[in-house]
């Protein structure tokens, strides 16, 4: 990918994931800066990836061609106001914040800058991320390619043409790792109630999940329902378990949960 001087404002979990992927893919560390109010995460990034670090957002942004906005949504207005003290013309902005629409981000930055709004997820830390991207009309073709390549360093990407679809990406991929963890927690607890120690219970569910995930990825020509049917012997144990999920409304529950994520993104766009 093209290499540009890039600054991450906010050096938390998601920035670390993306920076890790960039450096592993050969992006020159000397072109990457992270800015954060406290030092420990910055020092860890410098130690692990040899990038530039600073506690001075303004200096870091002034020197950058690309600015990744990676603070919590509720802190973005404060950061935007601070950044207005420097000349932001000509910079490409990439936001990873949940919920905040381009119009709000532009108001926070005080101008109509090229802005790619994205929604990544934490598996990006392992190079297995899924990121949705949306570009505003100021983003030119090279900027679009740069943003796609950047998030492509840490996983797969999907562009959306309608900004509202980013909230659906949040529900389906940004937040969804947590749904899977919850499901695994519940299975681990049950396996322990059935007599396994904690480590063995975890091994059982994590290896089953890993195998199932690989089966999904390696059989993209098969419907998910076909993979399920291959496990589900007629009148057998799986059928008994699936019947419980279906009777007790798992599909409706999933629908309600994902809709709640979308609704919350909509609320966040108004309150932050
Ligand atoms: N976690 C997730 O699964 C996902 C998160 N996101 C989005 O990513 C963004 C970051 O989330 P995440 O990395 O998880 O959060 P973190 O809390 O891990 O990181 C946020 C960082 O911002 C720093 N920060 C606070 N105030 C400022 C400031 N004024 N200037 C610069 N940096 C500041 C914090 O520093 P300190 O700790 O020192 O206060 C912290 O290191 C959020 O907007 C979230 O919506 C998107 C997709 C998935
Ligand atoms: O929970 C959140 O708001 C963020 C966005 C997606 C995952 N974490």
UniProtKB/TrEMBL annotation:
It is found in: Cytoplasm. It catalyses: L-proline + NAD(+) = (S)-1-pyrroline-5-carboxylate + NADH + 2 H(+); L-proline + NADP(+) = (S)-1-pyrroline-5-carboxylate + NADPH + 2 H(+). Residues 163-268 form the Pyrroline-5-carboxylate reductase dimerisation domain. InterPro entries: 6-PGluconate_DH-like_C_sf (IPR008927), NAD(P)-bd_dom_sf (IPR036291), P5C_Rdtase_cat_N (IPR028939), P5CR-like_CS (IPR053790), P5CR_dimer (IPR029036), Pyrroline-COOH_reductase (IPR000304). Gene3D superfamilies: NAD(P)-binding Rossmann-like Domain, ProC C-terminal domain-like. Keywords: Amino-acid biosynthesis, Cytoplasm, NADP, Oxidoreductase, Proline biosynthesis. Pathway: Amino-acid biosynthesis; L-proline biosynthesis; L-proline from L-glutamate 5-semialdehyde: step 1/1. It comes from the Bacteria. Its EC number is 1.5.1.2. Residues 5-99 form the Pyrroline-5-carboxylate reductase catalytic N-terminal domain. The keyword NADP applies. Catalyzes the reduction of 1-pyrroline-5-carboxylate (PCA) to L-proline. Belongs to the pyrroline-5-carboxylate reductase family. This is Pyrroline-5-carboxylate reductase. It comes from Bowmanella denitrificans. The lineage of its organism: Bacteria, Pseudomonadati, Pseudomonadota, Gammaproteobacteria, Alteromonadales.
